[in-house]
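We close this part of the discussion by returning to an individual protein. In the encoding step, the backbone of a single protein was reduced to a row of integers, each denoting a local shape. The sequence in question and its structure tokens are set out directly beneath this paragraph.
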Amino acid sequence: MSAPAPPLQVALVEDDPPLREATMQALVLEGAEVTAFPDARAALAWLDADYPGVVVSDVRMPGIDGIAFFAALRDVDPDLPVILTTGHGDVAMAVAALKNGAADFLTKPYSSADLIRAVRSAAERRTLALENRALREAAGRSAEGPIPGSSAAAQRLRSVIEGVARSEIDVVLTGPAGTGKSHAARLIHDCSPRRSRPFVTVDAGVLAHEDAELLLFGRDPGAGPGGGLSRTGLIERANGGTLFLDEVAAADAVLTARLLSLVETRQVMPIGVVRARPLNIRIIIARLTEDTGAGETDARDPLWHRLGAVQIAFPPLRERREDVPEIFRLFVARHARETGVPAPPIGAAEWRHVQTHGWPGNLHELSGFARAFVLGLSDLGAPPAGLAEQRPLHQIVADFERTVLEDALRQCRGDIAVLQAMLQTPRKTIYDKLAKYDLKPARFR
């Protein structure tokens, strides 16, 4: 699947009013958001290092000319792309600026097609430069912090987790594999009054082990023929803290019955004891659901509904696409620290893959791709993601359409009038599409 053409933002500096108006119209017709200035001084007061677009500036202007303006912008942000427009007598100056880092120069009179081509090329480089800057900034943050992302789903998860963490109520985490349930369980514990007490995980590897009962419940000395060594089980080690039961469906019928008793009574009976021991534990259960693409099917187990707990549903990444770039940066930073390999700059192919791939493996798959990217092992020569996953054509088209709309909403900051002009689409159609994909313009303002 090809990536949508990136939205354009242009800061136009031109002292000739008719030429400034004509250039603005040409850019707007191509879907650009243009901010025009009559001189360099006004533009310098407005531009900063976070500007996501391209600067187009005349060379010959009163006050601060285009060459001095370009030098001043280099101090603001050396990565900010500047396209200079020149008369024939200014070509030597423009070439010198090009050697010093200007993005391009156009000799007047230039065609609209040449202008758009130069702006699009510079805008692509600007997008990658800002993305790599964000990647470097992410290197100082952890992928193990609070739930990342700006989507409504991420905000809801952060709010619910913060609320339940402060209480003593038990929690059931549901969702497809790789959606962050284990990470959330640890977050809940770390933000709770039990944070200084043990956090013990019981996963499928323990539950399916041939000595699962011993590992979980422990044994008193003298239990069994000939006696035996005392062993504290995992459940009792969680006393005073949090017990996280991950993938409890892996337990057999006998073990499930004992876990049910634990959930209901908060008592543990090690092998060889006569009387059960009371426990002070909080229980968090992770319950796996299957993501079919048309909704989740309930992989119901016999424990969670007896818990009387708060349930928190974790959506697949395909339902929170706007969070994928941020999570990818955090994974890249983490893997760079773990491997001791500096995070490489992200290229156009990798960025396109991050934005358009469906990520059916959710966070596990995204983390694996980030690790391969850091190690230089990512292979983007495979068939397009939509075909490799054998998804229906209508779903591939819908994913592409949603991505275009999200990118445009970010670019226009949720302004419907600007969005309509950018996409050259009737207002009613715009609203229908936003409703179809549950995209709220207010989230992008």
Observations:
- The longest strand covers residues 282-291.
